[in-house]
Amino acid sequence: MPEFDLIARIAQRVGSRGDVVLGIGDDAAILQPPAGQHLVVAMDTLNAGVHFPSETAPGDIGWKALAVNLSDLAAMGATPAWCTLSLSLPGSDTAWVDGFLDGFLELARTHGVVLVGGDTTRGPLSVCVTVHGFVAPGQALRRDGARVGDDVWLSGTVGDAAGALTQWNAGQPMTAALRDRLDRPTPRVALGCALVGLADACIDVSDGLAADLAHVAVASNVGIDLHCPDLPASEALAMAFAAQEQLRLQATGGDDYELCFTAPTASRAAVARIASELQLPLTRIGTVTSAAGQVRLLAADGTEWLPPRAGYEHFAG
Ligand code: ADP
Ligand code: MG
């Protein structure tokens, strides 16, 4: 099927929004941002064999390609609106594109996000998505806002996606609940928006909790002490791995796309209210310290626990 037919196939299925003046079909899209808002833009690429096992179902790839981008907007406290999609495909496989769109558009619809354009080329399987969202000026949740004495909070549980990947790498069957979190992560969009005006700093956990918090520590010129026994784990993770391996996955495993944020201790009740409104567990896992740039993982007895491996880094080694 020629490229234009593939694009027509995509265009046929996308939804609409009042602020899309011109969507797919011309040389570029025309969009109307709301007056007085800042535009927040993020882009993430997924490459076959690097970001997902090559045999991943197309629908899961579609879901995840958008999810990781929405997670970046969530971490900024932005409300998503539009996205663009660059598809590099080895061949023009309509069944693959249809499956991909099933996952991609299911998540887009959930968040009222409309696909307004993109690019379609031939090449190794690769998916690049850009998302655009809005936030009130000065209100974005940034990495550089953490303050000494803040609590450190985490949404949901961490370690599941890395647990699934560990099982897959070992040639073991993946636990369904863990695999689901690897394939179809939930971007915490509503949480990000609810944290505006409340959190001092925020980041999404994509490379591993310790590695991601190191970015916050450096950007904010503070330290972060995490209390290992408080790190939340799912039942599935606890069932599948021994305690030390579970802790390693929680502290260093990536791909969970939970939000980690810091907030003043005076905001504990407000955080608890958000957790109950969103029906999303928010767990206090540590404290912001004055030890500039340092992230420490503290065991129950207060001694420092050093993980065997740091978070995922593309150009390491
Ligand atoms: P051009 O040659 O001007 O770049 P294209 O043929 O690449 O035009 O794109 C034609 C239209 O289709 C544009 O509006 C573009 O945004 C849209 N488009 C192309 N590929 C995709 C895609 N994968 N997803 C969404 N829109 C796409
Ligand atoms: Mg083009």
Automatic annotation (TrEMBL):
Pathway: Cofactor biosynthesis; thiamine diphosphate biosynthesis; thiamine diphosphate from thiamine phosphate: step 1/1
Signal peptide: none
Positions that bind Mg(2+) 4: 27, 72
Annotated PurM-like C-terminal domain residues: 147-292
Single GO biological process annotation from the record: thiamine biosynthetic process
Chain positions recorded as ATP binding sites: 118-119, 143, 206
EC identifiers of the protein: 2.7.4.16
GO function term, MF aspect, one: thiamine-phosphate kinase activity
Binding site for Mg(2+) 5: 207
All residue ranges annotated as the PurM-like N-terminal domain in the record: 25-135
Binding site for Mg(2+) 2: 44, 72
Record field: catalytic activity: thiamine phosphate + ATP = thiamine diphosphate + ADP
Amino-acid positions noted as binding substrate in the UniProt annotation, renumbered to this chain: 51, 255, 312
Keyword list, A-Z: ATP-binding, Kinase, Magnesium, Metal-binding, Nucleotide-binding, Thiamine biosynthesis, Transferase
Top-level taxon of the source organism: Bacteria
Gene3D superfamilies: PurM-like C-terminal domain, PurM-like, N-terminal domain
InterPro entries: PurM-like_C_dom, PurM-like_C_sf, PurM-like_N, PurM-like_N_sf, ThiL-like
Binding site for Mg(2+) 1: 44, 119
Protein family: Belongs to the thiamine-monophosphate kinase family.
Miscellaneous remark of the record: Reaction mechanism of ThiL seems to utilize a direct, inline transfer of the gamma-phosphate of ATP to TMP rather than a phosphorylated enzyme intermediate.
HAMAP family, A to Z: TMP_kinase
Function text: Catalyzes the ATP-dependent phosphorylation of thiamine-monophosphate (TMP) to form thiamine-pyrophosphate (TPP), the active form of vitamin B1.
Protein name: Thiamine-monophosphate kinase
Gene: thiL
